[in-house]
Write a structure and sequence with these properties.
Number of strands: 16
Strand content: 5-15%
Helix content: 25-40%
Oligomer: single chain
Number of helices: 19
Structural class: alpha+beta
Shape: globular
């Protein structure tokens, strides 16, 4: 991480008509009473942060590098709000819309790699109370004791110490929180930094300065970490009365000039100074570990925040009618907000439903896949073209890879030996909904486990639990979250609302109150499926806005025409 010289004047895009319209909508919403906002989602269209001009301007300011881990991302990075727009973590009792009013505040916008963005999520730790609702940015900065390093307003090296082995250590609580929130010691980052540090230290014994300049330039990956180490090497090399002054690129140029002018004896002293810095870093690691132990505010949670749900690649072989299929899934959509949604379109009998079933089996784990064993014979591939032939069918193979993780989920079934092999534990939360999606009003709960959650993909007669009893048990902010999500799916108007009481569930729409049980079967089918998704997400995640799962829906358009077909996939994604 290195200090960023952010221009005081915001990019023109933040003054554009499009942004002004969005900001006006957001401010009008935020000025409503809390009671009016409880069961409504805010109107901000997050797609605006994926606009190529918007993103391009911010990318240029941050030299097309992640502001936090310094990975080079080019124009593939994302816009990150340092203070989150919704559901600030650790904000118990806090309005859900903290800090939505800073959506277009230039000083709250950063450029980030996708991994740092996802790791951070809604986390913004502070020591003490948060600023008042709708406070100006100046008041917020004055009254909040923020515990994340802001590389655009402070020198990161006062809170972080980059070490010669590629790791980064904290110099206090702010450093501890920053390292934990962005997981700045994740394996890939440490390896990348270490290689560049070794390259820089090796270059000290040479004479060519071109390589030095390329390593330390503002556009170079991890140049902030390299400059931090080079500063300590320079301090150990030169006497106190002739230090190299300046910072950033000014310091780098002055160091290179002093280095080029050095004689052999001075070069030998420089090599010894670099060795002393490496030795000092080894000792410093023990101190840094002790500092981290005494300030445990945020724990690094790689499994929940990055691996789960981040599917990158699917490979399916010999599954029903599929001989071989490979799917590549991007981490995020290029020009829209929200998680990537993959829609498979094709004629009947081309493998659409089979693909969903295969993915489900790979992700739910071996013990859960075993509960679906009676369906396995129907999944075996037939090599026959003019007739059905499974006599010497090859084994089914399915693998699922994840972004930012070497881990793979896999499923294997050998029909001849009746052998099922898969991961021992589920890779993530998986929800599956077959084409029929029947529901049973007498069935209130489903059995525990991944197999039960995806059973309708394999059994056309399996049913989804009817959620009435569960809905009636929900109260307070949890019910508000559910109502806000259903408002989008059910396309409720401004004056419409979901009504949930101990003995009634209904919708007030167009001035009339209608019981959910009185709605059409198609409408109720959508309602039951959406509530089932929400229910499972809330069971596994405290905040539905940050929840992650793989949701597999066969024949997505079934019943959705009864609501609003053009926007239904997008609304389900939200």
């Amino acid at each position: 991480m290195r200090r960023i010289n952010r221009p005081k004047e915001s990019p023109w895009f933040l003054q554009s008509d499009r942004v002004m319209v969005e900001q006006k909508k957001v401010f009008a919403y935020l000025r409503r009473d809390m009671e009016d906002r409880r069961q409504r989602r805010d109107p901000l269209n997050d797609d605006i942060f994926f606009d190529l001009e918007f993103r391009g301007g911010i990318a240029k300011t941050f030299h097309e590098k992640c502001a936090f881990c310094e990975a080079q991302v080019g124009r593939e990075g994302v816009v990150l709000h340092l203070r989150p727009l919704r559901f600030a973590a650790d904000g118990e009792g806090l309005d859900k819309n903290y800090y939505l009013w800073l959506a277009f505040e230039w000083r709250n916008l950063f450029y980030s790699c996708s991994q740092c963005s996802r790791l951070k999520g809604d986390r913004f730790p502070v020591d003490g109370p948060r600023a008042s609702y709708l406070a100006s940015f100046e008041d917020i900065v004055q009254h909040e004791n923020a515990l994340l390093v802001d590389p655009a307003t402070e020198d990161p090296h006062k809170s972080l110490r980059f070490l010669c082995d590629g790791t980064v250590a904290s110099l206090g609580e702010e450093g501890v929180e920053t390292i934990a929130v962005f997981d700045l010691n994740r394996d890939g980052l440490v390896l990348s930094r270490r290689r560049l540090i070794e390259k820089m230290l090796a270059a000290l014994s040479g004479r060519g300065h071109g390589e030095f300049e390329s390593l330390l330039g503002v556009n170079a990956p991890h140049s902030g970490a390299l400059l931090s180490i080079l500063r300590r090497v320079a301090d150990a090399w030169l006497t106190a009365d002739s230090p190299i002054k300046g910072s950033g690129e000014n310091f780098a140029h002055r160091f290179i000039n002093r280095w080029l002018a050095a004689d052999k004896e001075q070069r030998d002293q420089l090599s010894l100074a670099a060795k002393r810095v490496e030795d000092a870093d080894s000792n410093f690691q023990r101190y840094a570990a002790w500092v981290a132990e005494i300030v445990p505010r945020y724990e690094i949670d790689r499994s929940a925040r990055v691996v789960e749900g981040e599917i990158a690649r699917v490979e399916i072989s010999y599954f029903k009618g599929i001989s071989h299929l490979e799917l590549e899934i991007p981490f995020h959509r290029e020009d829209k907000s929200g998680a990537p949604a993959l829609m498979i379109i094709g004629e009947n009998a081309t493998g659409k439903s089979s693909s969903l079933a295969a993915i489900a089996l790979a992700l739910i784990g071996q013990s859960e896949a075993g509960k679906l064993k009676k369906f396995m014979p129907s999944l075996v591939h037939s090599e026959g073209v003019n007739h059905f032939d499974q006599l010497d069918a090859p084994p089914i193979k399915v693998s699922v890879g994840f972004h930012f993780s070497p881990v793979q989920a896999a499923f294997y079934f050998d029909a001849r030996r009746q052998l099922i092999s898969s991961e021992n534990e589920p890779s993530m939360l998986v929800l599956g909904y077959g084409a029929r999606r029947f529901f049973d009003t007498r069935k209130r709960d489903r059995p525990v486990g991944g197999a039960a959650r995806v059973r309708t993909l394999f059994d056309p007669l399996a049913t989804i639990p009817y959620p009435a009893d569960w809905l009636r048990q929900q109260t307070g902010s949890r019910l508000d979250t559910i109502a806000a999500a259903l408002r989008i799916i059910l396309t409720l108007g401004e004056d419409d609302e979901l009504i949930v009481t101990p003995d009634f569930i209904g919708v007030r729409a167009n001035g009339r109150v209608v019981s959910i049980d009185a709605l059409s079967e198609g409408y109720r089918s959508v309602f039951v499926m959406v509530v089932d998704i929400i229910r499972e997400l809330l069971e596994h995640w405290g905040n539905i806005e940050q929840a992650q799962a793989v949701v597999l829906i066969d024949e997505l358009e079934t019943h959705l025409h009864r609501i609003r077909p053009a926007n239904s996939p997008s609304e389900l994604q939200h």
